[in-house]
Design goal:
The protein is mainly alpha-helical and about 50 residues long. The chain is built from two helices and no strands. It has one domain. The mean pLDDT is about 80.
Length: about 50
């Protein structure tokens, strides 16, 4: 096992930040409806259950 690579904490943190940003970008691009429509839908479902 001669391939022991160690990553610094900064590199790991940067990887998490980049992954989070990439995930957020994909979520925005693939969202089925606008945020206004989503808020309206949540508001209406909240009124039905109350």
């Amino acid at each position: 096992m001669g391939n022991d690579r160690v990553c610094s904490q900064g590199a790991v943190g940067l990887a998490f930040v980049i992954g989070g940003l990439a995930g957020a970008a994909v979520a925005l691009l693939l969202a089925p409806q606008s945020s206004r429509a989503s808020r309206e839908q949540k508001r209406l479902s909240g009124e039905k259950t109350a």
